[in-house]
Every structure is written in C-alpha cells, then in structure tokens.
C-alpha cells in the first residue's frame, strides 16, 4: 500500500510540474480574454477532455507502441528524461519551453477567435498534453502493469480537474497571485522537472546497462 501511495504521489507531482496549472491559467486567461464565461467554460472542458483522452490513449497503448516500433523502455526513459529536463531547464530560466507554446496561437488584435479554434490546438496540444507530458505518462505506465496504468491515468484525471477549476476562476486567480507569483511558481515547477528528468535519465542508463549487459564467456586456455 505504501508503494502505491508513493508511486501515485510521484506521478501526480511529475504531471503537476509538467502541466504547471498556475502558469497555464495565465495563458488560458490571455487567450480567452474576449470570450464570454460560457464560452470560456466550454473551451476549458473541451481542451481538458481532449488532453485527458490523449494521455490515457498513450498510457493504454504505450506497450503496443513499443512493440510496433521496436522501442525499449530504457530508450523511452533516456529520451523522455532529456525532454523533461529541457522543459524544466527553460522554466528555471524563466522562459517558456517551445514544447508548450505556439507562437501562432495568439490572435491578432481585433480578431474574434471562436472557442473551437483554440480548444484542441494549442490548448490541448501542445500546452496541456505536449510531448513532455506524453513522455512522462508513458514513462510511468510503460512497465505494462495495469496498476501503474490506472494510477497514471487517475493522477492525470485529478490534475485535469484541478486545472479546470483554475481555468474557471482564472482571472481572479491571476489577479490574486500576480505576475511575480506566477514566475516563482514556474521556476519551482522547473526545478522539480529538472530533477524528475535527471532521475529518468539515471533510471534509463541503469536499465540500458542491465538490458545490454552481456556476461563474457570464460575462455579456458589449456597448456600445450
């Protein structure tokens, strides 16, 4: 039971740091500034449902994807660790990672944007369920254990609910925290992500060593 709780907390913190609901709320408020409360609610629901479906699909199909493309778990952990580390590094520097932004997503002044235009892209992809989040989900669920898959999906579902509440009260939350508060939160999440990324790298190196470690065949030299 203790191990399950530890895994659940680790998975949740990994997702929380990667998605960073506080910073994403500021992005959401900026992108939906001209929307009515009803349109903002519909956009948030559509984006989070789409993000959840994407992550759940990768959690459930991760093992099959590995088999189809011949991917090993150490390879995923090495690549995912680098990816997560880079995202965390950019957040530590106080800048947004290109994996979680879309430069063409910001509408021009005076241009009316419909909720459907931003719910899937860029909100669901790549802001909420970007490559880093997908790599994190597959890393935690790739062992193939149904319990790990359920814990990973449940942790992301809880995070989606928290993000939904943040989105609904976005303007008030942003005003209450302020720009400095968002910057501090972003840097803290970046620190957590760099540590998680490094841990994934270490685990990947360890698993790769065990996977490809070949015990040398002893050679018996007989005296002539």
Can you lay out the helices and strands and say which pair or pack?
Elements: H1 2-19, H2 21-31, H3 37-69, H4 73-92, H5 115-128, H6 131-141, H7 146-168, H8 170-212
Helix pairs in contact: 1-6, 1-7, 1-8, 2-7, 2-8, 3-5, 3-6, 3-7, 4-6, 4-8
Organism: Photobacterium profundum (strain SS9)
Main location: membrane
InterPro entries: Multi_antbiot-R_MarC
What do these coordinates show?
- By secondary structure, the protein is mostly helical.
- It is built from eight helices and no strands.
- It has helices at residues 2-19, 21-31, 37-69, 73-92, 115-128, 131-141, 146-168, 170-212.
- The protein has one domain.
- Residues 99-107 have low confidence and may be disordered.
- Helix content is 77%, strand content 0%.
- It is a multi-pass membrane protein.
- Pfam families: MarC.
- Keywords: Cell membrane, Membrane, Transmembrane, Transmembrane helix.
The beta-strand count equals: 0
Radius of gyration: 21 Å
Could you tell me how far the N terminus lies from the C terminus, measured between alpha carbons in angstroms? 62 Å
Alpha-beta classification: mainly alpha
Count the DSSP helices.
8
Q: Tell me the count of domains.
A: 1
Q: Give the overall pLDDT as a whole number.
A: 78
Shape: globular
Helix content: over 70%
Sequence stretches where pLDDT stays below 50 over 5 or more residues: 99-107
Tell me the fraction of residues in β-strands, as a range. Answer: under 5%
Order of helices and strands: HHHHHHHH
Please describe the biggest sheet, giving its number of strands, its sense, and whether it closes into a barrel: none
């Amino acid at each position: 039971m203790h191990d399950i709780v530890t895994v659940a907390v680790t998975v949740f913190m990994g997702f929380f740091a990667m998605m960073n609901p506080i910073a994403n709320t500021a992005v959401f408020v900026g992108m939906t500034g001209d929307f009515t409360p009803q349109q903002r609610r519909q956009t948030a629901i559509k984006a989070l449902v789409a993000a959840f479906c994407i992550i759940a699909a990768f959690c459930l199909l991760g093992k099959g994807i590995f088999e189809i493309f011949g991917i090993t778990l150490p390879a995923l952990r090495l690549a995912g660790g680098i990816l997560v580390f880079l995202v965390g590094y950019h957040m530590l520097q106080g800048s947004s990672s290109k994996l979680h932004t879309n430069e063409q997503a910001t509408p021009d002044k005076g241009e009316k944007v419909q909720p459907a235009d931003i719910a899937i892209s860029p909100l669901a992809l790549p802001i909420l369920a970007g490559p880093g989040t997908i790599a994190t989900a597959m890393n935690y669920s790739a062992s193939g254990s149904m319990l790990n898959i359920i814990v990973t999906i449940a942790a992301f579902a809880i995070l989606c609910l928290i993000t939904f509440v943040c989105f609904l009260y976005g303007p008030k939350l942003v005003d209450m925290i302020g720009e400095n508060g968002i910057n501090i939160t972003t840097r803290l999440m970046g620190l957590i992500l760099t540590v998680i990324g490094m841990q994934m790298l270490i685990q990947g190196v360890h698993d790769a060593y065990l996977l490809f470690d070949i015990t040398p065949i002893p050679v018996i030299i007989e005296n002539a």
